């Protein structure tokens, strides 16, 4: 009897142990079943709590039609419009470079240079998510840029107005408020400078001339010139008659025409390099000629030597620097 009872107790203990084992296995199985998806997601690098999405885009209209661009672009290439990007506190991924003209040194950008005379495919290595181009890009170039990244070509109607270009670019890059802020500050600067220049210069005539160092010629800039026309249209300076009558952006002055440039004030800068550049030494002899020396502005010490870099740009930062130059040179 005792042996029988002991046998029952042994089987009971055995059954209890088996039940515990089975229960444990069931619990582990359930637990593993719950953990398996997370473990697999972790192994595959996925996060079940965060859904990755493509950057938001929007459709805008440029010179050639509709283009889909990022809502908040992060890596922007602004070919010939880096000035506006800098004004908006944006550092472009590259800066345009031309072997003949160099770069726009006045911007002080520490970024790689993109040779605009070379292959557009070179932009691929900088991985832009948006490219902005100005009037220098025709449809053929536009399509080539578009193969690198979404490309916005500025409309023709804004190209002659730095303020409109600024606001258009600000909208494209998602910084409209910043664009309005910069534009308002620039307009205030224009108004202040216009008043001071009017008081100092009055209605005395002004002309802008570029010394072309490649052929020692003098180019007279007209009132419609994108680089310097704003000094007449916005700052209120009076253009010399030769300037005001020009339909072209610029005209090369013949030797016979130089004496006709009898403006009260002359602004001049070289086409390339600096005034002290050795390669410009020969071209500078033009300014020692009897014809140039006979001009009223030369005799009256009212020729203003300017630096090339920002005077050969019509963008917002460059124009602001021109205002500083004019106030320094032409006002007491």
Can you tell me about this structure?
This protein has 332 residues and is an alpha/beta fold. The protein has helices spanning 2-44, 82-87, 139-146, 162-172, 176-201, 230-233, 241-244, 290-293, 296-299, 308-311, 316-330; strands at residues 57-62, 65-70, 76-79, 95-97, 113-115, 130-133, 151-153, 205-212, 217-221, 238-239, 250-253, 265-270, 303-305. Strands 8, 9, 10, 11, 12 and 13 form a 6-stranded mixed sheet that branches. A 3-stranded parallel sheet has the order 3-6-7, with helices on one face. A two-stranded antiparallel ribbon has the order 1-2. Helix 3 (139-146) links the parallel strand 6 (130-133) and strand 7 (151-153). Helix 4 (162-172) runs antiparallel to helix 5 (176-201) and helix 5 (176-201) packs parallel to helix 11. The longest helix has 43 residues, at 2-44. The protein is globular. 30% of the residues are buried. The model is unreliable at 1-51 (pLDDT under 50).
């Amino acid at each position: 009897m005792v042996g029988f009872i002991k046998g029952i107790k042994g089987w009971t203990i055995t059954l209890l142990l088996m039940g515990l084992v089975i229960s444990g296995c069931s619990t582990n199985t359930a637990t593993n079943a719950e953990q398996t998806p997370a473990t697999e997601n972790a192994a595959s690098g996925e996060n079940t709590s965060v859904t990755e999405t493509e950057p938001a885009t929007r459709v805008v209209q440029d010179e050639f039609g509709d283009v889909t661009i990022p809502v908040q672009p992060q890596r922007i290439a602004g070919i010939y419009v880096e000035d506006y990007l800098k004004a908006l506190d944006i550092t472009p991924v590259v800066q345009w470079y031309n072997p003949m003209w160099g770069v726009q040194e006045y911007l002080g950008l520490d970024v790689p240079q993109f040779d605009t005379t070379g292959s557009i495919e070179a932009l691929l290595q900088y991985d832009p998510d948006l490219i902005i181009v100005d009037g220098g890009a025709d449809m053929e170039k536009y399509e080539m840029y578009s193969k690198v990244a979404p490309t916005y070509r500025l409309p023709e109607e804004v190209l002659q107005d730095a303020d409109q270009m600024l606001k258009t670019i600000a909208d494209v890059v998602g910084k409209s408020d910043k664009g309005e802020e910069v534009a308002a500050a620039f307009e205030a600067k224009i108004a202040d400078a216009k008043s001071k220049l009017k008081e100092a210069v009055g209605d005395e005539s002004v002309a802008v001339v570029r010394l072309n160092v490649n052929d020692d010629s003098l180019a007279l800039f007209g009132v419609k010139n994108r680089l310097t026309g704003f000094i007449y249209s916005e700052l209120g300076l009076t253009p010399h008659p030769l300037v005001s009558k020009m339909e072209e952006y610029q005209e090369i002055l013949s030797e016979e025409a130089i004496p006709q440039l009898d403006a009260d004030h002359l602004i001049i800068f070289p086409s390339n390099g600096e005034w002290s550049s050795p390669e410009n030494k020969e071209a500078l002899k033009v300014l020692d000629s009897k014809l140039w020396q006979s001009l009223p502005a030369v005799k009256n010490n009212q020729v203003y030597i300017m630096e090339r870099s920002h005077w050969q740009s019509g963008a917002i930062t460059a124009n602001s620097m021109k205002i500083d130059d004019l106030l320094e040179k032409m006002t007491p």
